[in-house]
C-alpha cells in the first residue's frame, strides 16, 4: 500500500503509530486516542507545526500502526517501542550509566538481598537506583548487618548440621539449620527488609518495638537485644534526614534546567515525607529556543520513566502540566491499585520543593556541561597563571617512555594545539643511546633529539613541554634543554600515582590540583595520550621483534625470504595458517615444508 492508501485506511480507535523514513528506519513513535485523526494531522498543510514536526514530516516515507484496546495500553506500548527503536525525533530517557539497585529476591523460598544493575519483571523487589554506585554496597552491608538475611546461593532445606561463618559473626539468621531459624522467623526478617526498602520506617519501628518488648517479657533477651540494635540503627538513619513534608506521603518530585539544546532533569524520591534519594538524566540534542515544548517533553520523559517498572508513589509533582496527564494517572493508579495524582503545585511547600529540585538540576547541569566540558580557552588561561607561563600555551608537547625491563625502549611525542590533539604532529622515537631501562637517560635523549632538530630546521618551539614522570624525568628533560640553550622553554612533569605537577625551577613545591579540576583533566588527558601512543609503538616494535625471531629461527629462512613472506602473505598469523602449497611460490618446496613443520610440529608434512 502507498502512504496515501494507508492514511485513508487508518482505524479510529486508540493505538500507536510508527513513522519511518525512506530507508525503513523508525524515526518517530507516537500514541493516539484516535489513530486516524492523529496520524493524518501530520500531513494537513493547513495545520501549524513547530520546526521539529516540520522536519519530521519531511522525512516520513511510511507509517505503521498498532491498535490497542485502551489509551493506557497505547501509553505503555509507546514507551516500549521508543526503548526498542530509539527514534531520532522522540525524547529518549537515559542515564549516563546503569546505576545499581538492591534486589530482594521475593521469588525465592528464602529471599536474599543482592546488588544488580538489571531491573527485571521477575517478581523480586528492587530498591534504587543508588547514586553514587558505592552507596549500593554500603546499604547492602547495612541491610546484612541489620536484618541478617542469607548471602549465599545454596538450596535451603534446613537439614545442614551447622551454619557457616556468616551466622557466627551475626550476618545471617542461619535458615540452613532448622533449629536456628525457621521459615516463620525468616519471613519476618524479609518483611522488615521490604518495609525498609519501601521507606515505611514508622511502621517498621512500631513493629520492632512491639517485638522487642514481647521478647523481653518472654525472657528471650538475645533476640530482644537484636531488635533493640535494629531500632537504634533505623533511628540513627532517620536523624540524618531533615527534608520533610508535613503530610507523610510517598512523592516523586521532578524539576529540570535547560540552556539551549541541553537539559538536566532531576528526580527526588520522597518516602513517608522524607527525601531518600535522587536521580539525574541528561539531554544534549533538544530543540533550542522557542521550539522546545516543556509540557510535551515532561509527558514523554515521565511516561518512559514509569514504564520501566519503578516504584509508583502516591503523588507525582511536576513543574508543568502536560497533555497526557490523565492517561498517565490512570496507568499509575492501575499499577499501584490505588489513586495516584500528578500535580503541578503553584504555591506553598510543595512548590518550594519543586524549586529545590530545579536548583539541584541546575547544579547537575553546570557540573556536566560547564565544569566537565569547560571552555578550553579559560582552562588554558588558568594553566598560564598556575605555571606562570610567559605566554598563552597554544601548543603543548608531551613525552613518554615505554619499555619492558629495558627491552625495545621507545618514546612518544604528542602535540596538543589549543587543548585539542594534533595527531599529524605526533612523533615516535626509538631509543638509541640509553640502555638498561634508564628512563632518565631515555628522556634526556628524546627531548634533546626533538628540539635539536627543531632548531636545525628553524621551526617554532612549543609554548609548554610536559614529560610523564616525577622530578627525575623533569631533571633529565631540563638538562637536555639546557645543553641546547633552551632553558627559557617552560617545562613541567606530572607523576602518575600521586598526580602531582612538578614545574622546572619549583621542584621542591609540587602542585596538587583538586581532582575534579578541568585543568587537571586536561593535563591528565595529554599525559594519557602520550602514554597510549608510546605503548602502542612499543607493542608494534615487540611484535616485529617476535616476528623476526620466530621466522629467522627456521633453517633456511633469512631476512630476504622473511620480507618476501611478509610482503605476500601480510602477517605472521597468515604464514602460520598457510599450507605448503600456498608457501611454495615464495620460498620453494623444501623451505615451505620446513616452515609448515615449524608451525605444526605434531603433524606430518605429508598431511599438509
UniProtKB/TrEMBL annotation:
Xref: PANTHER family: UVRABC SYSTEM PROTEIN C (PTHR30562:SF1), UVRC/OXIDOREDUCTASE (PTHR30562)
One GO process term, biological-process aspect: SOS response
Functional summary from the UniProt entry: The UvrABC repair system catalyzes the recognition and processing of DNA lesions. UvrC both incises the 5' and 3' sides of the lesion. The N-terminal half is responsible for the 3' incision and the C-terminal half is responsible for the 5' incision.
Domain GIY-YIG stretches: 12-91
Main location: cytoplasm
Organism for this UniProt entry: Chloracidobacterium thermophilum (strain B)
Cellular compartments annotated: Cytoplasm
Gene3D superfamilies attached to this UniProt entry: 5' to 3' exonuclease, C-terminal subdomain, GIY-YIG endonuclease, UVR domain, UvrC, RNAse H endonuclease domain
SUBUNIT field: Interacts with UvrB in an incision complex.
GO MF entry, a single one: excinuclease ABC activity
Keywords from the UniProt entry: Cytoplasm, DNA damage, DNA excision, DNA repair, Excision nuclease, SOS response
UVR domain sequence ranges: 202-237
Gene Ontology, cellular component aspect: cytoplasm; excinuclease repair complex
Highest taxon, organism lineage: Bacteria
Family in the record: Belongs to the UvrC family.
Gene that encodes it: uvrC
Name of the protein this chain belongs to: UvrABC system protein C
Every UvrC family homology region profile domain range: 253-481
Pfam families for this protein: GIY-YIG (PF01541), HHH_5 (PF14520), UVR (PF02151), UvrC_RNaseH (PF22920), UvrC_RNaseH_dom (PF08459)
InterPro entries recorded: GIY-YIG_endonuc, GIY-YIG_endonuc_sf, GIY-YIG_UvrC_Cho, RuvA_2-like, UVR_dom, UVR_dom_sf, UvrABC_protein_C, UvrC
Amino acid at each position: 500500500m502507498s502512504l496515501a492508501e494507508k492514511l485513508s485506511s487508518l482505524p479510529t480507535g486508540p493505538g500507536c503509530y510508527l513513522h519511518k523514513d525512506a530507508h525503513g528506519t523508525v524515526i518517530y513513535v507516537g500514541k493516539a486516542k484516535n489513530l486516524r485523526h492523529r496520524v493524518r494531522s501530520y500531513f494537513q498543510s493547513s495545520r501549524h507545526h513547530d520546526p521539529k514536526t516540520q522536519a519530521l514530516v519531511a522525512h516520513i516515507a511510511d507509517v505503521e500502526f498498532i491498535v490497542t484496546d485502551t489509551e493506557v495500553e497505547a501509553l505503555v506500548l509507546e514507551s516500549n517501542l521508543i526503548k526498542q527503536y530509539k527514534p531520532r525525533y522522540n525524547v529518549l530517557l537515559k542515564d549516563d550509566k546503569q546505576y545499581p539497585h538492591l534486589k530482594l529476591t521475593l521469588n525465592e523460598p528464602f529471599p536474599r538481598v543482592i546488588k544488580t544493575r538489571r531491573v527485571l519483571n521477575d517478581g523480586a523487589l528492587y530498591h534504587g537506583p543508588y547514586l553514587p554506585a558505592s552507596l549500593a554496597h554500603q546499604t547492602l552491608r547495612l541491610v546484612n548487618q541489620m536484618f541478617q538475611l542469607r548471602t549465599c546461593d545454596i538450596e535451603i532445606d534446613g537439614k545442614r548440621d551447622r551454619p557457616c561463618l556468616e551466622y557466627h559473626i551475626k550476618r545471617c539468621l542461619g535458615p540452613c539449620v532448622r533449629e536456628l531459624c525457621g521459615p516463620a522467623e525468616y519471613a519476618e526478617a524479609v518483611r522488615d527488609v521490604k518495609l525498609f526498602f519501601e521507606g515505611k520506617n514508622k511502621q517498621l519501628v512500631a513493629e520492632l518495638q512491639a517485638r522487642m518488648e514481647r521478647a523481653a517479657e518472654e525472657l528471650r533477651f538475645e533476640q530482644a537485644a537484636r531488635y533493640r540494635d535494629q531500632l537504634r540503627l533505623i533511628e540513627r538513619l532517620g536523624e540524618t534526614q531533615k527534608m520533610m513534608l508535613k503530610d507523610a506521603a510517598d512523592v516523586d518530585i521532578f524539576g529540570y534546567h535547560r540552556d539551549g539544546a541541553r537539559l538536566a532533569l532531576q528526580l527526588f524520591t520522597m518516602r513517608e515525607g522524607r527525601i531518600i534519594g535522587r536521580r539525574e538524566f541528561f539531554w544534549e540534542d533538544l530543540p533550542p529556543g522557542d521550539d522546545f515544548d516543556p509540557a510535551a517533553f515532561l509527558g514523554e520523559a515521565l511516561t518512559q520513566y514509569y514504564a520501566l517498572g519503578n516504584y509508583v508513589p502516591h503523588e507525582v509533582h511536576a513543574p508543568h502540566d502536560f497533555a497526557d496527564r490523565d492517561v498517565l494517572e490512570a496507568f499509575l493508579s492501575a499499577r499501584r491499585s490505588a489513586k495516584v495524582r500528578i500535580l503541578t503545585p503553584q504555591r506553598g511547600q510543595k512548590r518550594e520543593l519543586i524549586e529545590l529540585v530545579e536548583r539541584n538540576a541546575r547544579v547537575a547541569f553546570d557540573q556536566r556541561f560547564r565544569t566537565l566540558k569547560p571552555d578550553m580557552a579559560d582552562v588554558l588561561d588558568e594553566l598560564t597563571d598556575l605555571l606562570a607561563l610567559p605566554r598563552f600555551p597554544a601548543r603543548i608537547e608531551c613525552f613518554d617512555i615505554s619499555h619492558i625491563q629495558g627491552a625495545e625502549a621507545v618514546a612518544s611525542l604528542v602535540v596538543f594545539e589549543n587543548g585539542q590533539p594534533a595527531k599529524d604532529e605526533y612523533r615516535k622515537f626509538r631509543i638509541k643511546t640509553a640502555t638498561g631501562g634508564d628512563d632518565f637517560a631515555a628522556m634526556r635523549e628524546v627531548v634533546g633529539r626533538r628540539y635539536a632538530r627543531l632548531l636545525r630546521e628553524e621551526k617554532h618551539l612549543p609554548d609548554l613541554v610536559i614529560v610523564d614522570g616525577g622530578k627525575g624525568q623533569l631533571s633529565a628533560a631540563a638538562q637536555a634543554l639546557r645543553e641546547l640553550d633552551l632553558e627559557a622553554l617552560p617545562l613541567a612533569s606530572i607523576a602518575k600515582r600521586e598526580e602531582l605537577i612538578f614545574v622546572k625551577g619549583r621542584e621542591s613545591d609540587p602542585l596538587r590540583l583538586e581532582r575534579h579540576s578541568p585543568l587537571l583533566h586536561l593535563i591528565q588527558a595529554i599525559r594519557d595520550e602520550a602514554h597510549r601512543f608510546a605503548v602502542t609503538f612499543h607493542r608494534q616494535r615487540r611484535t616485529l621483534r617476535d616476528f623476526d625471531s620466530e621466522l629467522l629461527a627456521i633453517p633456511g629462512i633469512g631476512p630476504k625470504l622473511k620480507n618476501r613472506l611478509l610482503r605476500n602473505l601480510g602477517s605472521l598469523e597468515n604464514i602460520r595458517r598457510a599450507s605448503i602449497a600456498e608457501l611454495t611460490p615464495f620460498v620453494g618446496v623444501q623451505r615451505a615444508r620446513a616452515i609448515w613443520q615449524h608451525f605444526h610440529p605434531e603433524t606430518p608434512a605429508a598431511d599438509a
